[in-house]
Give the backbone structure.
Amino acid sequence: MRYSIVYCSRTGNTKQIAEAIYAQLPAGDVVYMGVPCEEALNADVLFVGSWTDKGTCDPSVADFLSKTEHKTVFLFGTSGFGQSKQYFEQILQRVKELLPQTTTTGQGFMCQGKMPMAVRQRYQAMLEQEPENARFKMMIENFDAALEHPNAKDLEEAAAWARSCVEQL
Ligand SMILES: Cc1cc2nc3c(=O)[nH]c(=O)nc-3n(C[C@H](O)[C@H](O)[C@H](O)COP(=O)(O)O)c2cc1C
């Protein structure tokens, strides 16, 4: 079986997941690992991941997914919010809808990923304007919770997920 791992990661979180996946695959069978690129289509099975931007994947990943006709694609990603599995499922579902009809897919994987400090500063400024705003407080709490992700448990779960994808083939 030939595998590709394709991902878009701005600040390294999704790259960490990609590396955990890579470690589960027979190294000689991985024909491509890196940013979305035609060369990745030389594989039969593609692990495709992205950071989350406005509730969906990076446009470069969306464009790549549209070219995966007749391939098997397993989706993964990281997002700044992550208090519930439902939230991850919503994002995965949105991205899944970008796949051509002939593409085979299965259960995806997502975990939370830390955000740049500038985001916290923005939330903090918003809270200073409206100190009682519960939503702004929640956003700061979420930001702080995200700081430790992806953590060792996330990476173990990503590895277990990658193994289960391979077993399905
Ligand atoms: C401009 C921008 C937009 C973002 N939009 C979302 C979003 O809509 N939902 C979300 O959960 N996280 C969002 N995030 C957080 C990132 O998706 C998250 O930190 C991710 O782990 C970054 O992955 P990377 O390190 O692989 O780039 C956003 C971050 C930035 C900088």
